[in-house]
């Protein structure tokens, strides 16, 4: 069959990138652009404002770093590109990727995040780092200290914009954007585009073009997604059975709370491998860095995490995601599942534990991904406690024995008859 009608696949050389950048791409083995890169980069290199929407694990970082490199004059020692991200880990990751793609140029980068030595960050900025990547809080701190000068800024990038708004950074972001030069390029990338992100774009972007690849079902085609309905007090046993049955190469187990993550680590550490760790917001930054590095290097095979790990962390070896606690918001499900099946040609596997009371959350997730989670079976495992038959006489006895219900002020409620007697 002839292929004459097929559109030729565009490569990085077709996007107007410099020869130096193309050599850097070759050095890091970037051969074929991902869909978001192929759609976003040609717009961004023209200097237009652009909004890009795509699922996690699809190459969004290079989508904004590569156009930025074309706009930077590395002979000028001043900040020309500012990237805002929701977490310290994502800032460090974007900074590392920018350093790789800067190979062969004089461009310098720095990561501006809390929990790390601010003196080094100040030194990097004073030496003229052209790209600053950071979290909104630390960026505002450096601006107030007078060491992060935005007057020379050419491009502002909002990475994982929806997550930044989710965790309350909107006032900080708006304050930073108001401090930036009016004549600038603004790029925004996000996995979802809820109304708050749309409003932010309308207020601070100039007629942005929009690239939307969210409907391509990226997560659905690279991740096999399952659900298991289970009683709350049997979730732990279910987890151990799934891990034993699946034998994941590397897995992330998501919990809703930090306390739940710590409790799960304590129980699993007694029963399973020592290659296990926890990561959440209460850990000191150096601890989080040590855990994340160990996970990336493969020394940690099972990572228990809250949603601090739910966005933007690129660990390509993750084979399994387990939602021990179903996420409260369906968009968080998309981001958690996006930690596996990340552009390496292998299918990831995602599991979500659902208690009988959480049917509505499961329905919302399935509406969000436009698909159904397949039921997963664990042989010889009873997911539910045996239900005792209803005995009306025994139920009546238990009601008689029950103490009076307390009122709001802590005193026991008196019946109308008792009140009359008094």
TrEMBL record:
The gene is cshA. Pfam families: DEAD, Helicase_C. Belongs to the DEAD box helicase family. Its EC number is 3.6.4.13. One of its GO terms (molecular function) is ATP binding. This is DEAD-box ATP-dependent RNA helicase CshA. Residues 384-410 are annotated as: Disordered. GO terms for cellular component: cytosol. It comes from the Bacteria. Residues 238-385 form the Helicase C-terminal domain. It is an enzyme of class 3 (hydrolase). A motif (Q motif) lies at residues 10-38. SMART domains: DEXDc, HELICc. Residues 10-38 form the DEAD-box RNA helicase Q domain. Residues 41-211 form the Helicase ATP-binding domain. Residues 384-402 have a biased composition (Basic and acidic residues). Keywords: ATP-binding, Helicase, Hydrolase, Nucleotide-binding.
């Amino acid at each position: 069959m002839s292929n004459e009608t097929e559109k030729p696949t565009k490569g990085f050389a077709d996007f107007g990138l410099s020869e130096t950048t193309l050599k850097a791409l070759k050095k890091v083995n970037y051969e074929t652009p991902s869909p978001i890169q192929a759609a976003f980069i040609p717009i961004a290199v023209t200097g237009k404002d652009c909004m890009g929407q795509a699922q996690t694990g699809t190459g969004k970082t290079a989508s904004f770093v590569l156009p930025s490199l074309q706009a930077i004059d590395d002979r000028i020692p001043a900040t020309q590109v500012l990237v805002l991200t929701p977490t310290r880990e994502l800032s460090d990751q974007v900074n590392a990727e920018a350093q790789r793609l800067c190979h062969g140029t004089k461009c310098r980068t720095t990561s501006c995040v809390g929990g790390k030595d601010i003196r080094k960050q100040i030194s990097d900025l004073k030496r003229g780092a052209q790209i600053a990547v950071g979290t909104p809080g630390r960026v505002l701190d450096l601006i107030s200290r007078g060491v992060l000068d935005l007057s020379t800024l050419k491009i502002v990038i909002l990475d994982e914009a929806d997550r930044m708004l989710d965790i309350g950074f909107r006032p900080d972001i708006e304050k930073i954007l108001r401090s930036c030069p009016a004549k600038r390029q603004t790029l925004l990338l996000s996995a979802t585009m809820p109304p708050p992100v749309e409003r932010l774009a309308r207020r601070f972007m100039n007629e942005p073009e929009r690239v939307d690849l969210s409907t391509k079902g990226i997560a659905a085609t690279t991740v096999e997604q399952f659900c298991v309905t289970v009683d709350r007090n049997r979730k732990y046993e279910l987890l151990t059975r799934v891990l034993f049955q699946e034998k994941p190469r590397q897995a992330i187990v998501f919990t809703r709370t930090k306390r739940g993550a710590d409790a799960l680590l304590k129980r699993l550490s007694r029963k399973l491998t020592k290659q296990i760790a926890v990561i959440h917001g209460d850990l000191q930054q150096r601890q989080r860095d040590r855990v994340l590095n160990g996970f990336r290097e493969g020394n940690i095979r099972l990572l228990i995490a809250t949603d601090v790990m739910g966005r933007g962390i690129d660990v390509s070896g993750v084979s399994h995601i387990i939602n021990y606690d179903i996420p409260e918001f369906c968009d968080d499900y998309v981001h958690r599942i996006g930690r596996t099946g990340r552009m390496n040609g292998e299918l990831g596997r995602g599991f979500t534990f659902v208690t009988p009371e959480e049917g509505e959350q499961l329905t919302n997730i399935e509406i969000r991904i436009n698909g159904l989670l397949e039921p997963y079976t664990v042989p010889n495992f009873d997911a539910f406690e045996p239900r005792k038959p209803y005995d009306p006489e025994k139920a009546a006895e238990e009601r008689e024995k029950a103490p009076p219900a307390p009122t709001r002020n802590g005193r026991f409620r008196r019946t109308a008859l008792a009140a009359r007697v008094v």
